[in-house]
Specification:
The structure is a homodimer of 385-residue chains.
Chain A lengths: L3 E8 L10 H16 L8 E5 L3 H5 L4 H8 L6 E6 L4 H14 L6 E7 L6 H9 L4 H4 L5 H15 L4 H15 L13 H6 L2 E3 L2 E2 L9 E9 H7 L4 E10 L14 H14 L8 E3 L5 H10 L8 H7 L15 H5 L3 H16 L12 E8 L4 E9 L2
Parallel strand pairs in A: 2-3, 2-4, 9-10
Antiparallel strand pairs in A: 1-7, 1-8, 4-7, 5-6, 8-11, 10-11
GO molecular function, one term (chains A, B): acyltransferase activity, transferring groups other than amino-acyl groups
Protein name (chains A, B): Acetyl-CoA C-acetyltransferase
Keywords (chains A, B): Isoprene biosynthesis, Transferase
């Protein structure tokens, strides 16, 4: 089967986009991606919109149809992809399938979310509705799961609290060089460790913010990629997998089954293994998640990711740079956009467009986590040879 | 490329399902579809959930993850497909792509919506949010578009008001033989024509009801279909297309561009033409839509569908039976389920499981309309040879 190429990418400024709505953000990223890839709107066959909750956040649904109109992409087929906080990764999977199946010769994927007009409490309520009713109706939210898991991890593996803080410090440092990041702000370990407690032992700086933003990718069959781009990337492996929806039913709270299974699928499909990965974007919605994904994806043994972080292994000049974009932590986390933005960063790293964040990379990986690992999509991308 | 087969189908009772929620309905249809197809939950690779608005209707999101859990289908990949009122058709397209791309060897598609716990006004508000903000913020809803279009059609093509009423009469008559239909109730023309005006010239009986319900299909590569079923159907053509999101920007209000374009794509892919179609399920959310789809899909010339209806051409014993299931009109319209339920009816007709509704059919078609034709998915299915 022919491989699927990525020939263009874009993202808007992430942060608080006052007075702009999700459709404005989607249109901005979509137009920029058309320009970046040299594709005319009329050439777009399929348009996928990754978005979790425009209805709940804005009272506006049908946004893919509205976006097709705004981009003047009619009669392109369009559809919304929702996989909660992994809607962006699910969008990459849907877009990949549309091209790989032959349904589309040119697919534009745009992910976005508008959230900051809501209070943190209101936004958390919308996000919490993705958990099992038995959980959220009793008040359990994703941050509380993160706190429980972090406590368990630190005690069981004798890991210092500081190691989690270093994830935040590293990702903020990377974000300094990302003009689109929500927080371009250096943060030292002391600041993280002394920030207000949110869900013990996790503190404010262990959490990603509430964010508005959008990101986009253009996908097509590899056979036509060269018509549009000298440098492009190819998706060589992609898979998604669920874990129990009820978090407390999992055998080991430090093992995210969805990460393990989707990673296994993506490695198998690409013929790659963890050692081949040169750069990765992981879903650091909470600092503890970066450890769990490093372990689930085979970058570290169980209970040992924290050591690699302590050693600087995952820093920009380390063996395996993780979250060179700044991650969700510093870049921000507009739900539907985040997985797409992970893809944007890896694409830019692979085609040499990452500017001051550039690392040497031929093979990159993204891992996008829905809920508390309820569904995970892992993608392996490679620079075209 | 290998063809994609449908090896099983199910639908729940449509209607008012008091005390049950969307997840209950999805699980019921999902379990029944597993049983009908002889597939074990552990064999399911991908699970798609067609649903427009569980967040808005119930405050519950992440339902695909919850359903994977409830069906014990982990680690199957799962995702929600939203294309407003055509979410079901979009689900068939997504499920088809998942198999055709090789991503999945066994895909379960379940569509569903829970709506009747809301007042008609509340439900209409949610549905209206799919239109362009410039439209719904000024109070234009889908029924009002239908009224305007019907008035235009009747006057321009000199069609009698009765012809629209006959669509309702026919579909109610078909629904009498569908045990899962919301309204199993014979309706005569007089009743339709004397029912309360909703959007002049359309009256209550020109509209589909608010409905709870779910429907499911099982898809796999044709090469393995025979392991599961003696009789199965094959999707030979499928395409989706948008029209302007702003309805008043369309050149001709009686031409639904999305119907025309998606139909063209499905015919081309299957090598079929309108004359080959033996049975069709059209999206009769409003009676006038059945005319517009008949014309857009080439079953009638522009302005002449009403004549075919008058002649009985689309009745169960006519040349081209349309909406043998009872259509949205009598069967009901749980948004995310409707497009899937159209596929269920055509599948049952093709494999000879339609019971008292059975017609002779080797080739069937479904047309699922999102919004007021904002995005349309047309599918052609054939009995396996």
């Amino acid at each position: 089967m022919e491989r699927v190429a990525i020939i263009g990418a874009s993202m808007t400024q992430f942060g608080q986009r006052e007075g702009e709505w999700v459709l404005d953000l989607l249109a901005e990223a979509g137009l920029e991606c058309l320009e970046d890839s040299g594709v005319d709107a009329a050439e777009v066959d399929h348009l996928y919109v990754s978005n979790m909750a425009s209805g709940e956040f804005e009272g506006q649904t049908g946004i893919p149809n509205a976006l097709a109109h705004d981009l003047n992409a009619m009669p392109a087929y369009t559809q919304r992809v929702d996989q909660t906080s992994s809607s962006g990764g699910a969008g990459i999977y849907a877009a990949w399938q549309s091209v790989a199946s032959g349904a589309s010769d040119m697919t534009l994927l745009v992910g976005g979310e508008k959230m900051t007009h809501k209070t943190t409490g209101e936004a958390t309520d919308v996000i919490a509705s993705l958990t099992h009713p038995a959980e959220y109706k009793t008040g359990v939210t994703l941050p509380s799961f993160a706190g429980l898991t972090a406590r368990h991890y630190l005690e069981r593996f004798d890991a210092p609290r500081e190691s989690l803080g270093k994830v935040a410090v590293k990702n903020h440092e990377n974000g300094l060089d990302n003009p689109n990041a929500q927080f371009r702000k250096e943060v030292d370990l002391e600041t993280v460790l002394e920030s207000p407690i949110v869900a013990d032992p996790l503190r404010l700086y262990d959490f990603c913010p509430i964010t508005d933003g959008s990101a986009a990718l253009m996908l097509c069959p590899e056979s036509v990629a060269e018509e549009y781009a000298d440098e492009y990337a190819v998706i060589t492996g992609i898979d998604g997998a669920t874990d129990t929806h009820v978090v407390h039913e999992r055998e080991d709270p430090t093992v995210m089954g969805g990460v393990v299974e989707s990673g296994k699928g993506a490695y198998e499909m690409s013929g790659r293994n963890p050692e081949d990965i040169d750069v990765a974007e992981l879903h650091d919605m909470f600092t503890i998640l970066e450890f769990l994904q490093m372990e689930g994806l085979g970058f570290a043994e169980q209970g040992e990711a924290w050591k690699l972080v302590e050693e600087g292994y995952t820093e920009r000049d380390g063996e395996l740079p993780i979250n060179t974009s700044g991650g969700l932590k510093s870049k921000g986390h507009p739900l539907g956009a985040s997985g797409v933005a992970q893809g944007v960063e890896i694409y830019e790293q692979l085609v040499g467009e990452a500017g001051p964040r550039q690392v040497e990379a031929d093979v990159g990986l993204t891992c996008n986590v829905g809920g508390f690992g309820n569904c995970v999509i892992t993608t392996i991308m490679e620079a075209a040879q």
